[in-house]
Amino acid sequence: MQYGICNLSIVPLKLEPTDKSELVSQVLYGDLFKVLEQRKYWSRIRLAFDQYEGWIDNKQYAEIEEKDYTTLNDESLKLSSDLVEFIENENSQLFTIPIGSTLNGLKLLHHKHDGNFVNVVRPKAQIAKTAFTYLNAPYLWGGKTPFGIDCSGFTQMVYKLNGYKLLRDASQQATQGVALSFIEESEPGDLAFFDNEEGNIVHVGIILKDNYIIHAHGKVRIDRLDHSGIYNVDKNKHSHKLRVIKKII
């Protein structure tokens, strides 16, 4: 088994080993993973944080020893907390990293970071405040940053920055936590899930106070939430059908 760490800011994770393949997620700076299969140009990896799998370009990560993977993976996560920050490499070159990048591997990569970070579990009330950081970020299928993010990438990153672990996809996140019977039982920071006509969960958002929800749909936006689902305040119609509300924390 081989192991790796992302040594660049934002790296695409692909469904298949080709540049033309669908983007299924992104690997952010400092993310750890196991290399399940290595080909000439691409490697199939499994991320340590959420066990998500996909293909990554061999030029876009650094191989590390198993002992370093184990040591770093056992540490509490230390995450960058500003929208954009800088890393300095051993040649004094600067490059940017997005909010939520993992800083535990700085020493291993011979990098320096002087910005702000978080490394503690924060109270549930902080979830909504963190969510506002991504407000107006454009929607991007597979995205996980303020420069492009999808609905479940948004909820996963917001929870991650507060010390909680969510799985990657909305359908996977819906298997976590405790289901609530009514919207009135929910609190800011709970998750609301929405399904399509086939009954498959395809969307997720973070509940705010006073029956509002923040979610990634075109962009990270705030809409109304009622028993039917999400009511789009711009188009004056429902955009998503409510399936279940989950209390994760």
- What spatial order of strands do you see in the largest sheet? 15-16-17-18-19-20
Count every beta strand, where a strand is a DSSP E run of 2 or more residues. Answer: 20
What is the succession of H and E elements?
A: EEEEEEEHEEEHEHEEHHEEEEEEE
Shape: globular
Number of domains: 2
CATH class of the largest domain: Alpha Beta
The whole-angstrom Rg is 18 Å
Q: Note the beta-strand portion.
A: 35-45%
Amino-to-carboxy terminus distance: 35 Å
CATH topology description of the largest domain: endopeptidase fold (from Nostoc punctiforme)
Estimate percent helicity: 10-25%
Largest sheet: 6 strands, antiparallel, barrel
Structural class: mainly beta
CATH superfamily of the largest domain: endopeptidase domain like (from Nostoc punctiforme)
Mean pLDDT, nearest integer? 96
Helical segment tally? 5
The stretches of 5 or more residues where confidence is low (pLDDT under 50) are none
Provide the CATH architecture of the largest domain.
Alpha-Beta Complex
Structural description of this entry:
With 249 residues, the protein is mostly beta strands. It contains 5 helices and 20 strands. The model has no long low-confidence stretch (mean pLDDT 96).
SSE map:
Layout: E1 2-5, E2 10-14, E3 23-28, E4 32-38, E5 42-47, E6 53-57, E7 62-64, H1 66-74, E8 79-80, E9 84-88, E10 94-98, H2 106-109, E11 117-118, H3 125-132, E12 144-145, E13 148-149, H4 151-161, H5 170-173, E14 178-180, E15 191-195, E16 201-208, E17 212-217, E18 219-225, E19 229-232, E20 237-247
Antiparallel strand pairs: 1-4, 1-7, 2-3, 4-5, 5-6, 8-11, 9-10, 12-13, 14-20, 15-16, 15-20, 16-17, 17-18, 18-19, 19-20
Helix pairs in contact: 3-4
